[in-house]
Amino acid sequence: MQRGYSRQRLPRDAPHAVLLRVRQAAAAMAVALCLIPAACNKDQQMTTESTNRSKHALNRLQHATSPYLQQHAHNPVDWFEWGQEAIDKARRENKPIFLSIGYSACHWCHVMAHESFEDPAIANVMNRLFVNVKVDREERPDIDDIYMQATLVYTRGQGGWPMSVWLTPELKPFFAGTYFPPTQRYGRPGFREICERIGDLWAGDRAALESDANRITEHLSGQSTSSQPTLIALTPDVIDRTADLLAGAFDARKGGLLSGGTNKFPPSMALELMMRSAARRNEDDAARRQLMDRVTVTLDRMANGGIHDQLAGGFHRYSTDADWLAPHFEKMLYDQALISRAYVEAYLLTGDSRYARVARGVFEYVLEDLCSPDGAFYSTRDADSEGEEGRYYVWTREQIARALPAAELDAFCDYYGVTEAGNWDDPHTPGAPKNILHVAQPLTDDNEANRFRGARAALLKAREQRIPPHRDEKVLCEWNGLMIASLARGGAALNESRYVHAASRAADSILRRQYRDGRLMRSYRDGRTLDMAFLTDYACMIDGLIELHQATQDARWLETARRLDEVLTAQFWDEGRGGYFSTAANHEALILRPKDFRDGATPSGNSVQLGNLLRLAVLFDDAGCRERATQTIDAFAGELLQAPGACERFLASADMALHGSVEIVIVGDAGDARTHALERTVYEQYLPNRLLLRVNPNNGDISAASPLVAGRKMVDGAPAAYVCRNYACRSPVTTPAALASQLREFGRGR
């Protein structure tokens, strides 16, 4: 089961009396169903049951744009997509709605599909008792977010996918869980008996279920509208205390944070927050050393672990053990974006070239495997191939011996931890000697990166002969925005123009295919778009465009970002309480209109947009952006202070509000090597809050219509750099050394 929600988001902040009633309702429903309301643990070795069921006639999902929904098009379940047709049927026939939410690369979604949704007997029960609705969480994060909150209540904070929720015809949830086995197993009731019991309760005690559904919905609605301006101030000390809190919770020897007892997700946003705090705290050496120790241990262990694809680059979704060895093997675009960004920032802060190599490996993987012909990026690469999770990625020593020269075999196997006995228990073939490649014996010299280059290429070529996992080729604005930002910032930092060019191609593709009449469209696949977009789509695309401008100094990216911000303000801004709603003002009516600032597997829309507002405010001296940034912080400050560890990206954005930006204006011809040298000096510094503008004095070309550039000139005919804060600038400098010195001084006060 895929867990992207490792935090108990809802009950933490609920008023005690409301929380008690909600928990009582959830507990009562659980007792009625004779089950424990807890999500299944991934350490339970549940396996996919082999089936010989024949394909059934295609159902409605054959017409879906989502690959995940199309994977269920042959189910005997009478599936509907989310929409009015299904809702009307439920109301007309007085049936509950069974809502199943997942995504195409979700291993346990496949398990539940094979075990239950492909079983004609279980399908008959579902079709008789419910109106069955299938949703791709990646296409519809609004629906996923609302009903994940309900699931977290019913499962006591353990959410995940597949998500299974039962709704009244008015779309109010009255019971929820995650993965259910088809029949009783591990002390848990089977999915069929749960369906039948819910059907009995609906027929015999519908009023009680509806009462519980109303209570849960009221609680969720209260949570979604609780943000309001507060007198509580967010101070720099809060950011540093949160960084210290995270460092104290990290595994000191192996890095990262345990989730659900055994799992570790890449803590990319936490690492970035910790680096920001460490870089600023030069006078507190002990705190700085602890923060950086946790950061580097985590990055080192992740890079050496099986979670890192040692052959093709890129990272799998998460590790199922504390050692980062055995991953869930799916690869998500957003993980590549967030992880590569953390490694780039670590490289800039430490100067350690290993982190640059890992970041390059992630970028190369994305460009090789997830890049569409027109430049946009696909969403995911599945975990399963040929019906088995991880089959594409694991090795026996014999398979490796067939691919490598005998003289190189032993050294390669020692380095990558390959043994005859194997290091991974394949749930599909217990006892088989399978190996996950990981760096078991790191080299200590400078040849580590090149020692097995040829061997890795040979194994990668051999691996490419296998049947690869399915690739979800829908293009999402949100995830592309994250990847564009990482490629642009990483390309500038690593002096790799290919990465910046790839970011530009992706942005052009999104704006060509998924930007119509001034509005974004969340997803694109096979010529079809999903004609809606969410806060995260706008916020992440704006972020990507701002980073593209910073890397290229091409004014069109910044101008487009500003236009998108205008739409975002008109459609998503909460005029009464501040902050942004997750859905647009003209979005379809749901049981609530979510608004959240907490970061999960991806940063929240409010977290990203806060950073956008702060940068746009400085670049354009925009009072409106500045005021909305202040109101956004005020709207969430009270809740944030209760749970700062759930808001790493929000705090990173707030760090810029509290400490200000470092503004650099470079005056010089773009083709002049001296101008380029000054720009390279900026890109090579660890300055997470920096903003760069370039002016070409020969033709009046500027990268933004900003007051920052007013009156800036070359010095004695030489390109010059102005380092500023709050529009107040130091004396201009003309050499990279002098510029680096000023930037380091300004950076300490970040």
In short:
The protein is of the alpha+beta class. It contains 25 helices and 24 strands. The protein has four domains: 11-224, Glutaredoxin, CATH 3.40.30; 236-383 and 472-659, Glycosyltransferase, CATH 1.50.10; 393-465, no CATH class; 662-748, 3-Layer(aba) Sandwich (Glutaredoxin), CATH 3.40.30.10.
- Please tally the β strands and state the result: 24
The shape, in one word, is: globular
Rounded Rg: 26 Å
Strand content: 5-15%
Largest sheet: 5 strands, mixed
CATH first level of the largest domain: which class? Mainly Alpha
Give the CATH architecture of the largest domain: Alpha/alpha barrel
User: Domains counted in the coordinates: how many?
Assistant: 4
Helix content: 40-55%
What's the overall average pLDDT, rounded?
Answer: 89
Structural features, described:
With 750 residues, this protein is an alpha+beta fold. The protein has four domains: 11-224, 3-Layer(aba) Sandwich (Glutaredoxin), CATH 3.40.30; 236-383 and 472-659, Glycosyltransferase (Alpha/alpha barrel), CATH 1.50.10; 393-465, no CATH class; 662-748, Glutaredoxin (3-Layer(aba) Sandwich), CATH 3.40.30. It is 47% helix and 10% strand. The protein contains 25 helices and 24 strands. Strands 1-3-2-4-5 form a five-stranded mixed β-sheet, sandwiched between helices. The chain has a five-stranded mixed β-sheet with strand order 22-21-20-23-24, covered by helices on one side. Helix 12 packs antiparallel against helix 13 and helix 19 (535-552) packs across helix 21 (605-620). The protein is globular and about 85 Å long. 54% of the residues are buried.
